[in-house]
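ARCHIVE CARD
CATEGORY: sequence design from structure
SOURCE FIELD: tokenized fold
FIELD CONTENT:
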């Protein structure tokens, strides 16, 4: 290869890398723009674990994903009140939540798949937010429950 060919190939590789980076950044920006929560309405797994170990009242943790996944493994003490991705089960969640004080400290999570594709978190957050909950947060599990919680050695239960 000539020096000119190598220079052209290097330039093309750099351009391709920049194009891929721009696509990734635009996808992340678009996803963040469509999330109904803001960063103050989220909690990282390690931070939630710290909260759960403190003597003050712990947040109520609600699993909003598929029942099959809940029985396979869920955060210790998490409650299940329906799969938020379908209207009938979302109504179960709303009915349960309607009896709670609007100042209740709620953390919702799913973990069925990567968060940007989760069919359950956004409907659950929107429904609970519209009911007026002021201390509502989403547990950030970017990949899924297994990778971002269980594989980290954080405590979880199986079964009902």
């Amino acid at each position: 290869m000539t020096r000119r060919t190598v220079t052209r190939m290097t330039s093309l590789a750099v351009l391709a890398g920049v194009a891929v980076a721009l696509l990734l950044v635009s996808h992340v920006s678009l996803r963040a723009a469509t999330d109904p929560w803001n960063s103050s309405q989220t909690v990282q797994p390690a931070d939630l674990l710290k909260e759960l170990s403190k003597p003050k009242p712990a947040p109520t943790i609600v699993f909003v994903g598929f029942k099959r996944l809940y029985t396979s493994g869920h955060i210790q003490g998490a409650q299940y009140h329906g799969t938020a991705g379908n209207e009938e089960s979302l109504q179960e969640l709303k009915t349960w939540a309607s009896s709670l004080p609007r100042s209740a400290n709620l953390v919702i999570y799913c973990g069925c798949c990567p968060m940007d594709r989760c069919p359950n978190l956004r409907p659950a957050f929107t429904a609970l937010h519209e009911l007026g909950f002021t201390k509502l947060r989403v547990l950030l599990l970017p990949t899924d429950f297994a990778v971002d919680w269980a594989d980290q050695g954080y405590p979880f239960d199986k079964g009902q």
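CARD ANNOTATION: The CA atoms of residues 47 and 139 lie 10 Å apart. Residues 14-32 have pLDDT under 50 and may be disordered.
SHELF: design records, drawer C
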